[in-house]
User: What shape does this take?
Amino acid sequence: MTLVILSLMFWAGAWALNVGLSQSPVVQSRAGRLLVPAIFGITLLVVWEGLVRGLNVPGVILPPPSAIGARIAVSLPTLWADFRQTFVKGALSGYILGCSAAFLTAVLIDRSPFLQRGLLPVGNFVAALPIVGIAPILVMWFGFDWQSKAAVVVVMVFFPVLVNTVAGLAATDRMQRDLMATYSASYLQTLLKLRLPAAMPFVFNGLKIATTLALIGAIVAEFFGSPIVGMGFRITAEVGRLGLDMVWAEIAVAALAGSAFYGLVALIERGVTFWHPSQRH
Assistant: This one.
């Protein structure tokens, strides 16, 4: 019970510190903006550790962060192999293929009113299909290796990127398009010099949404069949053995990989759309 009380006291102190920092000029700097979420994350881990140990929660229900960290330390080769199989081979390859296909399809849809009326409603229908229903079918079609996981990721990321890109290509106003027409600009010139630059915030919005969907899709697809390696396979196997510390280790690796992937896309967006008001701080 002492650990529980200390954990709650630590939480209250960290909360007060974060409230003070959020109202301080220090938070306006880049280091300050990172300090508040860092304190929040550390607080969450400390409270988690204190409550689990103070209340004697069994490890098969919820292991403490220290046990998860120890498991990560002794399982680095296994975690790295699972990461390569799921993220590099499945999620990343599917992300690149799906986003590229969605971008090219959006340009075709923008060029064709027929496709705007015909393909987008079908796309919305397919996007609403449950991944747990699509994944086993694609695993049967493409086999148990990473190709089937990449196919699931393609299906998951295609339509969010497609819809955002189509919306972005329509974001320019009529006055801007009329100005390009007075310069006798062709469709391709208007697309490259006006409409695509204006669409970039929308495109990156879809790409950022797709980063999380890609990893989720690859992991879920591995639940329905995979080689004896991969995050989804490991989670399923360890749940059956009640190895919850390894399950949480895989979850931690997936969360870190997904956050880093999202941050990389956001960093690229900042460089490409530096002119947009959302990037001015």
About this structure: The chain has a mean pLDDT of 82. Residues 10 and 16 are 10 Å apart (CA to CA). The longest helix spans residues 76-111.
